[in-house]
Amino acid sequence: MTAEPAEQVLAGGGPGRRPRRARRGAAEDVAGLGFLGAGAFVAPALALIGLFLVFPALWTIYLGMTDYRLTGLQAVDPTFVGLDNYERILGDPSFWRSLRLTLVFVLLSGIVGQSLLGFAIAWALRRLSGWLKGIVETLVLAAWVIPASVSSFLWIALLDRRGGTLNALLGTEGTAWLIEHPMPSIIIFNIWVGTAFSMLLFSSALAAVPPSQLESARMAGAGGWAQLRDVVIPNIRGHILTNTLLITLWTFNTFTPYLVTAGGPNGASEILAVYIYNTAIPGGQLGVGAAISLIMLLINLVIALGYLRVGRARAARPAEATAVETAGGGETA
Amino acid sequence: MAAITTQALVKEYPGGVRGVDGVDVTIADGEFFALLGPSGCGKTTLLRSIAGLETITEGTLIIGDRDVTRLEPGQRGVAMVFQDYALFPHMDVADNIAYPLKIRREPRGARRAVAKEVGDGLSLTGLLERRPGQLSGGQQQRVALARAVATRPEVLLLDEPLSNLDARLRLEARTFLKELQRELGVTTVFVTHDQAEALALADRIAVMREGKLQQVGTPREVFATPATTFVAGFIGSTPMNLLPARVEGGRVRLGEASVPVPRDAEGIVADGAEVVWGARPEYLGWSTEPGAEGIEAEVTVVENLGASVLVTTHAGEHRLQLVLDEDDEPAPGARGWVTARAHRTLLFDAASGRRIAPESAEDDGGTVAGEGRPVEAGA
């Protein structure tokens, strides 16, 4: 390490370079623990991960290839059926309907609803100050903090056919929202529950947009929309990507809507997580449920890898730019 | 091209703090004008008020023949270069330069053409395809300048234009800026806390303190005939010597010594008045021969400034600094006499801090604004 400072100065010594050097140093045995010593420190964590994460995942793969049931003969002595479960699932129209519902749910309640609404609130709060900002933030956060069982009960009370608050407000006594409009109900419910995260993430992202860039755009005559398009969005592109990834995965996997509609009526709001539950527990087909779970896991992986790819392509450009910047700075100095 | 006039301009922040407090100034068409002052004096607030980035609380702002007090920044015909340049990192240089044209919905071809033309004029040829992150500090500044002048604004505002450059580049950029301003003939206002920068660049300088104008004048006026002790102390790479004194029998009494009354104050200042005597270190001399006009002093510190030396002397409890040629460098501990020329020294009123001079001389020194000016009472 002693010879490196000079080299760093020559290379421009930008703040971005230091960690890369440090990482190389960390690969060596700095603490002097030795392989076994270091392994002993990591072992408990690895054991826990193995016990609670890796083992259940492998067990699910195994279960997905059996005719394991909740009750009856197969509950005691499940038999290996190979890929029969997968064949059945992929041939079952109710699975495809559930997948379609899930995609609609993710798109409308997650990507469009939570992200856009969260951004809109963050953008509006940016100019606001004092008590009004505090109140709005607290309200939005409250929706997130309230336990799912409580908030779903609140929504059932709101949307109930008889004596529901919404019917009282709109004067539409007798409208069974959860039965007549199950998907819109759980979509709006999920937006209400989850918007706080996007709002918080975008609030901090907006705070990091250099004010002088916004003012520069204003000096050029840019209105609110042009400022958003030319300054804000390009500056927070990374945050948008991260937020969309997390929201997509969370919304894809969420089970809370079950507490509002239980997937009904007649499967009309049966998103994938609810479909698995309904198949495995009330339906008793644990083997089939495990197989669908694995399919869901694979879809999750594909989504995550897709986002990571986009993110990596994006990250590659600024890094290259900073490298040239430091070199250019040295040349003129 | 346009002149800028502010009338009793006030910018008050919530809580009653006045960033700009009743400023009256007229900046002529095509003038290179500096707002100078220590940090927190309101110079940047005044610049941002002209830009439209701060809403003006009271008073009016006229650019050309339009009252722009309530107009949006984009409608004022004003362009600004920010201290950090505020280039858009995701656009290449050409898009950055032509950004104001994009807002005006000009076609892409026309935008690229303007970017090329303006970029060539600012020696950015060959850099148009790069991102701002790939440019050096000086290049980034030129891109920011190019973006500002691409739409041929009537007024160009520069916020601390040289502060983000390293010392060597700063001198180069200073000359470059002055050339560019001459070439474009655009009315330019810039903010700086560096008096040397203001003296070197500006046609006229406004010295500000606590939101108020202290003095407006050419660099020579502000340097040679500062309106107040504040301006006297702020301008000059070595601050002016300011010593409390008293006028006695037609001479200025400084402790044991006495010096002649400065020429400007002759016949105006009353006998027995409490004053502050001011003399620039550059205008003071050193003599080892006792003379009637000298102040006897002892050299305590000698600092090398290259071709000259900064000598600190003590005369009784008073401290006097002088800048001498390297050939005349005295040794620390030496005793001698500090000599002053009557036409190069100034007298200030001890109570108000204002310079004692005939009225006409004050007019020569440009607009003078200080305490007790009627405009501020009304603002």
Task: Outline the biggest β-sheet of chain A.
Answer: none
User: What is the CATH superfamily of chain A?
Assistant: MetI-like
Q: How is the CATH topology of chain A named?
A: MetI-like fold
Summarize model confidence as the mean pLDDT of chain A.
83
What helical percentage do the residues of chain A reach? over 70%
What is the strand tally of chain A? 0
Shape of chain A: globular
| Straight-line N-to-C gap of chain A | 27 Å
Query: What's the CATH architecture of the largest domain in chain B?
Result: 3-Layer(aba) Sandwich
In short:
With 333 residues, chain A is mostly helical.
Describe this structure in words.
- The complex is a heterodimer of chains A (333) and B (379).
- Chain A is an all-alpha fold.
- Helices cover 77% and strands 0% of the residues of chain A.
- Chain B has 379 residues and is an alpha+beta fold.
- Chain B has 2 domains: 4-224, P-loop containing nucleotide triphosphate hydrolases (Rossmann fold), CATH 3.40.50.300; 229-356, OB fold (Dihydrolipoamide Acetyltransferase, E2P) (Beta Barrel), CATH 2.40.50.
- In chain B, 25% of the residues lie in helices and 32% in strands.
- Chain B has a 6-stranded mixed beta sheet with strand order 6-7-8-3-9-10, sandwiched between helices. In chain B, strands 13-12-11-14-20 form a 5-stranded antiparallel beta sheet. Chain B has a 5-stranded antiparallel beta sheet with strand order 15-19-16-17-18, with no helix packed on it.
- Chain B is elongated and about 80 Å long.
- Classes of the chains: A mainly alpha (333), B alpha+beta (379).
- The interface between A and B is medium-sized, with 26 and 38 residues.
